[in-house]
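Box 3.1 A note on notation
Throughout this textbook, protein chains are presented in two layers. The first layer is the amino acid sequence; the second is a token string describing backbone geometry. Keep the layers aligned when reading.
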Amino acid sequence: MKKPEPQPNPEPEAPTPETWDPVEEGRLEQEAYRKYRDRQRGYPMPLPTYH
């Protein structure tokens, strides 16, 4: 019986438990939601107050 070859990681960008930052994750999620919400309202450009 052959040993299974190690699979290459399909998502190198996927966060590992060591590097995963819940604060950063929450910030990115909030940012993505804000962009989505603004697109729904008809604001294609992010407002300067966001930065």
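The mean pLDDT is 72. The helical segments are 22-41.
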